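Q: Could you fold this chain for me?
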Amino acid sequence: MSYIEEKYTKKIYEILENLVSTEEDIKELLSEKNIKNSVKIAKLCASCNKEINLILKKYYPEVKSLDSKLEIKSRMKFYYDLIDKLTDFVRNVDEFRRLDEKYFDSLIEFIENKADLIKEKYRNISTNELTAFYDKKSRENLERILEQNLAQREHQFFTMGPLEEEIKKIGRIAGADDVLIFSRERFHVKDMKLIEEPNSLIQYSIYSMDEDKLKKIGHEIRTFLISKGYEALILLVELIDLDMDREGLVGNVLTNAELLTDF
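A: Sure. Below is the predicted structure, expressed as structure tokens.
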């Protein structure tokens, strides 16, 4: 094991161990069965998501040991599902303003069953994924599928991390024809103080002049980012020329979330 791999593997395990206290804090808030705690839970969920994204983007690619990959991947899959469940929880609170106690109990039970889920569910899934990835024939098939999707301009769902993938899915479900993410170095906003530490710009476009549709897309993306504990601001709508016969609209959401970018 190289120095970098050893260092990064150790760092991953440190982050995963630190997330245990975050789980306990979330479980304690859920045990109170009070929807007023949704804001605190959203912030803890956002913090958890940020740490998992850090592992995925910076440290995990350097891990070569299959045993370590299997252990890390299995534990990360638990957090992917936990983040999804907590995101749904925050959305349901916003929509219904009242939840059955059984909903809180189901989330608490999921956290308490973490060890069994990792051992019996996520490890099996991760084993199959890693086996498929490192099997030569399966690897060739996977590369062929990736090439096909790249040609169809759908590669973001294969290359983005969980947060970026969710943003793009939400934008497309809301009606966007294209959703792109830019780093702060690739966009210019006249007054950067509009938002604290602007790190990313999410640009969404539609091949029509339906301003209401565009506003809905921006609202959905902004609501999602806020539910994750980030700041988000919808910027001015712009007109774009698609070709000689068509026009469209493009909107932008500025956020302090550090996202994997397309450009």
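A (continued): Residues 156-255 form a domain with the Alpha-Beta Plaits fold (CATH 3.30.70).
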